[in-house]
Sequence to fold (283 residues):
Amino acid sequence: MLTLTTVAGMKEAARAEKSAGRTIGFVPTMGYLHEGHLSLVRASKVAMDTTVVSIFVNPAQFGPQEDFARYPRDLERDAALLAGEGTDMLFFPEAADMYPPGFRSFVEVEGLPGKLCGRTRPGHFRGVCTVVLKLFEIVRPDKAYFGRKDAQQALILKKMAADFNLDVDLVLCPIVRDPDGLAMSSRNKFLGPDDRRAAVVLSRSLAEAAAAIRDGERRPEALIGLIRGRIAREPAARIDYVEIVDAETLEAAPDAGPGRLIALAVYFGSTRLIDNLIVPAKG
Ligand code: AMP
Fold:
């Protein structure tokens, strides 16, 4: 595995792959990798000639009160995991190289970032879009792989790619979960044993909503009430939001029909976890 630590070095390596006629699959991450990240690497490996993974804890997407400084980092372990998956290139840039003094340009997708997670994380998606556009320009991928765990992020990035006519396909991959159902996340590390046990309520409450939908319940307020009630039984959990929305516009949906997005964010102490479910087609 080749490790590139500068923007210039990564650009040159990507250019060489392109001129050799090799397709590039790209997996942007913030590191502290788990099976969710590795599933994206595997999806790229089977489809593309060269797989590039970036690890960059992007300061532009963290609010001043958020966990940028304590976001978990373990480059050695990450590099070993990536090498084990046959990753071709690891891009690990420094913040000063990505955002040199005088940096002034940011990408705003209008509307969508004001919903769901954007309400408690103002500026978050502006930071995400800015870094991902930069990374796309540096790595020049044919396909880029993202997890459905971050459903709003995936939707916003797809909109950015379409609006800017970017030459990259965004491939969305399923949520990878721990055996008890908790969606994998680098932030799960922050959960103490009690909160970790309690956090299973996120996926359980979504599963209960899915069961109610299978039984014919379609009213968003009834389903949201069910999810909220289930989560409220965990004293350590503090709900940020539970919403049922149109999966394209993120507007509140009038019903919980097939294709709707049920999304939630819940705090355990200062750790904020997200999970979601797309209502399946009947069958
Ligand atoms: P992060 O390192 O948290 O920025 O995530 C990097 C990529 O991995 C994003 O596209 C995430 O959506 C994806 N990802 C994170 N957790 C999971 C998971 N449990 N399952 C699938 N994809 C994930």
